Amino acid sequence: MKILIIGTGYVGVTTAMVFAESGWQVTGLDVDAFKIERLRQGRLHFHEPGLEDLISKHVRSGRLLFTTDKEKAIAEHDIIFICVGTPSQLDGNADLRYIQQAAEDIGYWMNDYKLVVTKSTVPVGSQEQIKTWIEASQRVAYSFDVASNPEFLREGKAVEDALRPDRIVIGTDSANATEQLQKLYGAFQCPWIVTKPRTAELIKYASNAFLATKISYMNELARLCDELEINVKEVADGMGLDPRIGPSFLQAGLGYGGSCFPKDVSELVMTARKHEVNLRILDQVMEVNCLQFNYLLDKARKRLGDFTDKYIAVLGLAFKPNTDDIREAPALRVIQELILEKAKVRLFDPIAKLPVDVCYETVTVCGSVEEALQNAEAVILCTEWTEFGQLNWEHLRALLTQANFFDGRNMMDARQMRGIGYYYQGIGNDY
Ligand SMILES: NC(=O)c1ccc[n+]([C@@H]2O[C@H](COP(=O)([O-])OP(=O)(O)OC[C@H]3O[C@@H](n4cnc5c(N)ncnc54)[C@H](O)[C@@H]3O)[C@@H](O)[C@H]2O)c1
Ligand SMILES: O=c1ccn([C@@H]2O[C@H](COP(=O)(O)OP(=O)(O)O[C@H]3O[C@H](CO)[C@@H](O)[C@H](O)[C@H]3O)[C@@H](O)[C@H]2O)c(=O)[nH]1
After folding, report:
1. Structural domains of the chain in order of their starting residue, each with its CATH number
2. pLDDT tens per residue, range 356-378
3. Cβ–Cβ contacts within 10 Å for residue 140, how many?
4. Any idea where the UDP-glucose/GDP-mannose dehydrogenase C-terminal domain is (predicted)?
5. Which of 67, 89, 259, 267, when mutated, tests ligand 1's pocket best, judged by the most ligand atoms within 8 Å of its CB?
6. 188 in ligand 2 pocket by Cβ < 6 Å?
7. ipTM over 0.95
8. What spacing in Å lies between the alpha carbon of 5 and ligand 1's midpoint?
9. What is the C-alpha separation between 94 and 100, in angstroms, rounded?
10. Enzyme catalytic residues
11. SS3 annotation, 136-174
């Protein structure tokens, strides 16, 4: 079996690596020639720990190829994974234009039977829609199957998650598709769920929305903790020991960001609305998340009076550590608000960059934490990069004109920070 991956972003490249590691011949196809050129050299166009070494190993051995040639790629492969983006539209619905383009390309260039597998996160009912797009663009009516195989990897931990998944979910009505996918994933020792396409699609959205719910719940609880003089991290530790709750996704902070939770919660709410079901909990999850960054900024406003002409050091831009992804990053909201309130932002992130077209006069991108802290009246920590926790904050205090520390990820210990002279506020982490 020869595998084609359409879309060589975070998911496509990781999926290509997984199948190459299992010994299959894999080709990655993208419309972006820059990305393909880098990948051909065994280099990634994004930051993902451990992935580049594996990609470059398989490129060198010839097991992994990259191309922009749709016609040849589609004609020469039997199994095609769609891994293109499904961002949000302004109204909250998923934008399926890249999926439609990929489906139409497959229909147009197919020359034999193909198994088409959707790894992209697509709304419930998309498999039927993809079938109609393929059929409508076929020049000859070759047979094909469509299956859903949602991806559950986390950025920053993609290699580990994709090589050792918790579960493999397959949604298809075709016995042939199930058989081929079982062969493909043969070596994986994890639970399998083979179900209807719609169920598979909903499992993906329901999982992300549930995790987002845990986060918003903890963020609300953190506000209560601030009032009650209780530390939310201790509460989370106590809750997490109950195996029915579990310790993960209980970290209060600036709210969830990234390319998945915001858009997927929103799409699930929209899907429900189309069916006249009101997912009230998720409406609140989104609202809490939208307000969360401002909760920390309010603490800073109270302390500083206002931000006008004040140097503010913002540490961390990525939506979480160990990635360069800034899609829906809470740091962006913090920065936008600081700009509106006329602060002079000094930004540092070890990996993530502001896009070149985003150039604010009042934002200085710094090359080190020290540079960002220079003359600042406050530090706002937005991403919990390990290195921020390892710095000598006592020593760094001298760089600041005022030692105010607002910790959006509850990374520091309040007592220790106060002990070395900081005015410290976290999110439910002050006591
Ligand atoms: N990023 C994650 O952590 C993650 C995890 C699980 C699932 N997902 C889902 O996987 C999908 C992909 O996410 P991503 O983060 O990898 O996206 P991405 O934006 O990093 O990559 C998508 C790639 O598809 C390419 N593309 C678009 N249209 C194309 C076409 N017609 N032919 C060939 N290439 C095309 C783009 O150029 C881009 O390189 C989304 O639906 C997302 O929700 C993402
Ligand atoms: O306790 C927590 C855990 C996470 N976050 C935030 O939530 C966001 C998402 O984090 P995470 O889930 O680790 O990253 P993603 O790479 O977006 O992965 C999620 O989204 C992917 C795309 O659908 C799924 O495949 C993964 O299973 C799902 O975890 C980030 O902003 C985190 O800072 C918190 O605020 N508190």
Report:
1. 2-194 (3.40.50.720), 211-425 (3.40.50.720)
2. 766 678 899 999 999 999 999 99
3. 7
4. 313-414
5. 259
6. no
7. yes
8. 10
9. 12
10. 260
11. HHCCCCCCEEEEECCCCCCCCCHHHHHHCCCCEEEECCC
